[in-house]
Amino acid sequence: MSDTVNPAVIRRADYAAPAFLIDSVSLEFDLVPERTIVTNTMRLRRNPDAAAARLELMGEALEFVSAAIDGKTLPASAVRAHEHGLTIEDVPDAFTLTIESACNPGANTTLSGLYVSSGNFFTQCEAEGFRRITYFLDRPDVMTTFTVTLRADKTAYPVLLSNGNLIEQGDLPDGRHFAKWEDPFKKPSYLFALVAGKLVALEERIRTGSGKEKLLQVWVEPHDLDKTRHAMDSLINSIRWDEERFGLELDLDRFMIVAVSDFNMGAMENKGLNIFNTKYVLANQETATDTDFGNIEAVVGHEYFHNWTGNRVTCRDWFQLSLKEGLTVFRDQEFSADMQGGATDEAARAVKRIDDVRVLRQMQFAEDAGPMAHPVRPESYVEINNFYTLTVYEKGAEVVRMYQTLFGRDGFRRGMDLYFKRHDGQAVTCDDFRNAMADANGRDLAQFERWYSQAGTPRVSVRTAYDAASQRYSVTLSQGYGEAAPAARETQKGPLLIPFAIGLIDRAGRDIPLRLEGEAAANGTTRVIELTEQEQTFTFVDVKEPPLPSLLRNFSAPVIVEYDYTNDELAFLLAHDSDPFNRWEAGQRLATRELLALAARAQAGEPLTFDDSTVAAFSRVLTDETLSPAFRELALVLPSEAYLAEQMAEADPAAVHAARQFARKRLARALKNEWLAIYERHATPGAYEPTPQAAGHRALKNLALAYLAELDDPADAVRLANAQYEHANNMTDRAAALAVLLAASAAAGAGVAQGALDDFYRRFEQEPLVIDKWFALQATQRGSAGRPVIEIVRTLMAHPAFSLRNPNRARSLIFSFCAANPAQFHAADGSGYAFWAEQVVALDALNPQVAARLTRSLEMWRRYTPALRERMREALERVATQVKSRDVREIVEKALA
């Protein structure tokens, strides 16, 4: 683009169709780390729906060499290369354009575009990385077919991969070789991929539902081949699931996954050639935890599902990002739930649902309340990389889930079928998806559009009334946003359509059959009522006794429910609610209420006490063998310190930490014998199995061990943890034991854990992902007055295994400290904020995307106590004067505004 066509703020309202279309592109790469030559031959034509006299191509960090139209080299006067791209004057209506350019992959620390990692070539093009590879119409609504020829030294780069199908390969003079790939499906440039290097593959051939044979490959560095089986199994399960659930079949002859250790994201869905962070591919029992195994299954599923929801149908523009991401997160959530509990085991599926909602409430709700608040479909941005957010992904998934809640699985499938029938091969909008759901189900969903355009977390207030004489129970729902952040308030135009699932429970703990006023008969024990007005009343009849409402079952909408349960009522729901999610929710509400009261007393310097009835409620869950171990573990984990701080008028991390630690110690002391019994009962002897059932036993066992470490005398916990560490046959148990030893060290002295820390490093120093765990465990430990964690983190930054250039390593140490250790990061002396500022500035010079993610640790600074606020503001202002990237500047400026 020209210098004037790069506005500071890009707005959805300004969308214009591309002036030119590309019918086909042929790319030739001569791969050399210091100077890769790219020859780009495009067939272009003017878009009849747009007008432009000249051609504007995007390009960044490129060296322009030459350009030719229809074989004739263009004179210098006809081409202008500039920092934003390439401008060519007076082009024909249809023509072939050949551009030769050069880039320097070896020096590309941004990990966007073409770069070198561990001596191999990789690409990352979403959102705007392709323009760092060649001059192009780098926008998602320009879709074309790609033919790609790769040439490189055969010894250094024996494997040459790109999108689609391999159609030719062979040797060249001077020890070089080539491979030619053709992708038969039109795609935007952000889905382009290239990999070249010394890699090996786990291969498997399968037949799809229609009987076609497909080649599946997982490519890794040779020493990691033994860690690829789970990723391959996850891929096969994903392919089978998408066929069965949505009738969607793999469309290419082969599907490839490639793992790279230097990667800004989790993975990328490039058509047929998915490039993954090693974190979401590599796993065996010695190196990966149960959580890692689950995450790999989910991320492999997510990227594979993008083949249809993102690739075959893609985004018209980046404001529509949730069209593909929210939909595909929902699909991967459903896939993981089906893998865990099938389509009918709601108790098992609820474990996945609870995990998903916990992330949403702890992190996305906070985003909704801050300066970066934005709708699921944003209206403007400065740097698109900053909008790969929890709102777009996780809240976007909840918006998609509400279609299924409204229409059921069959209705949702009808909507999906119509969506693909209408839009396969197109770049479309969130409105196109909503219209397909509406038309397939005969519904007017005009009001539902507000979920895409309004920011903030809705609140639903509930009032109830029971009339014994008429046996009528009325539920009045009212919706609003409360004290929304300014960034969210300006988007809020009217009431939403909120599917609100409700059940009623009698005094014996049984579900009451539900009949709404005006209905002929009762229909089920959970009803989804549709709140469409600011306030509505729903009346249930034939209710023979005052019931206890079970509200927003299975978290049927991403809202905050305001209803004043008593502690006894919450304890009753925790013991009896048939909806597994709401059982967990009742326990969380009970614990949150107790912990916030404790934090207030800690702030006031008052003695701390923990209600006996809350201990009793936790005891009942702990010892209830009718509940799955996985569910009990989730129910017995106290709300996080970050979530609790969010619930305070002024966040006070020190008070929250004191309150939560007091509660953990109280539960440890009161239930010591029960924790010991649980630890023994839920051991998993024998060969390791990464199944949901076995993982649930390990999770509950390791939670028991963690609680035992909170005892005034943690000798039992240290003894058990040392034995578990020494004899563990899997990383889940070994890492959990090490974490317990670190926790015990806060009370018993550093020596308790140091031996295990040293042994852990010696065992796994050749396993980068495990060393990431070693760094993270130390960054998130509790610390002590004599040795705050900031000192440990600064020491570890000088460790030979630490590198700021590797995003995984930076996240393992720096992000873990700043985002996952609030009590230590928010130290009263401001040392955490000074450290944060140093690292943001350092990362900004290397990798702005990673720096921007770290920057967000302080975006909510205005919600903290005055003393902390002042120190955070100083750190933000220091960063504002030193950083250069749009990525970081957008976040800092919005935070300070």
From TrEMBL:
<feature type="domain" description="Peptidase M1 alanyl aminopeptidase C-terminal">
    <location>
        <begin position="568"/>
        <end position="897"/>
    </location>
</feature>
<keyword id="KW-0482">Metalloprotease</keyword>
<keyword id="KW-0378">Hydrolase</keyword>
<dbReference type="InterPro" id="IPR001930">
    <property type="entry name" value="Peptidase_M1"/>
</dbReference>
<feature type="domain" description="Peptidase M1 membrane alanine aminopeptidase">
    <location>
        <begin position="231"/>
        <end position="451"/>
    </location>
</feature>
<dbReference type="Pfam" id="PF17432">
    <property type="entry name" value="DUF3458_C"/>
</dbReference>
<dbReference type="InterPro" id="IPR037144">
    <property type="entry name" value="Peptidase_M1_pepN_C_sf"/>
</dbReference>
<dbReference type="InterPro" id="IPR038438">
    <property type="entry name" value="PepN_Ig-like_sf"/>
</dbReference>
<dbReference type="GO" id="GO:0008270">
    <property type="term" value="F:zinc ion binding"/>
</dbReference>
<dbReference type="InterPro" id="IPR014782">
    <property type="entry name" value="Peptidase_M1_dom"/>
</dbReference>
<feature type="domain" description="Aminopeptidase N-like N-terminal">
    <location>
        <begin position="61"/>
        <end position="191"/>
    </location>
</feature>
<comment type="similarity">
    <text>Belongs to the peptidase M1 family.</text>
</comment>
<keyword id="KW-0479">Metal-binding</keyword>
<dbReference type="InterPro" id="IPR045357">
    <property type="entry name" value="Aminopeptidase_N-like_N"/>
</dbReference>
<dbReference type="InterPro" id="IPR035414">
    <property type="entry name" value="Peptidase_M1_pepN_Ig-like"/>
</dbReference>
<dbReference type="Pfam" id="PF17900">
    <property type="entry name" value="Peptidase_M1_N"/>
</dbReference>
<comment type="function">
    <text>Aminopeptidase N is involved in the degradation of intracellular peptides generated by protein breakdown during normal growth as well as in response to nutrient starvation.</text>
</comment>
<dbReference type="GO" id="GO:0008237">
    <property type="term" value="F:metallopeptidase activity"/>
</dbReference>
<dbReference type="InterPro" id="IPR027268">
    <property type="entry name" value="Peptidase_M4/M1_CTD_sf"/>
</dbReference>
<keyword id="KW-0645">Protease</keyword>
<keyword id="KW-0862">Zinc</keyword>
<dbReference type="GO" id="GO:0016285">
    <property type="term" value="F:alanyl aminopeptidase activity"/>
</dbReference>
<dbReference type="GO" id="GO:0006508">
    <property type="term" value="P:proteolysis"/>
</dbReference>
<protein>
    <recommendedName>
        <fullName>Aminopeptidase N</fullName>
        <ecNumber>3.4.11.2</ecNumber>
    </recommendedName>
</protein>
<dbReference type="Pfam" id="PF01433">
    <property type="entry name" value="Peptidase_M1"/>
</dbReference>
<keyword id="KW-0031">Aminopeptidase</keyword>
<dbReference type="InterPro" id="IPR042097">
    <property type="entry name" value="Aminopeptidase_N-like_N_sf"/>
</dbReference>
<dbReference type="InterPro" id="IPR012779">
    <property type="entry name" value="Peptidase_M1_pepN"/>
</dbReference>
<dbReference type="InterPro" id="IPR024601">
    <property type="entry name" value="Peptidase_M1_pepN_C"/>
</dbReference>
<dbReference type="Pfam" id="PF11940">
    <property type="entry name" value="DUF3458"/>
</dbReference>
<feature type="domain" description="Peptidase M1 alanyl aminopeptidase Ig-like fold">
    <location>
        <begin position="456"/>
        <end position="564"/>
    </location>
</feature>
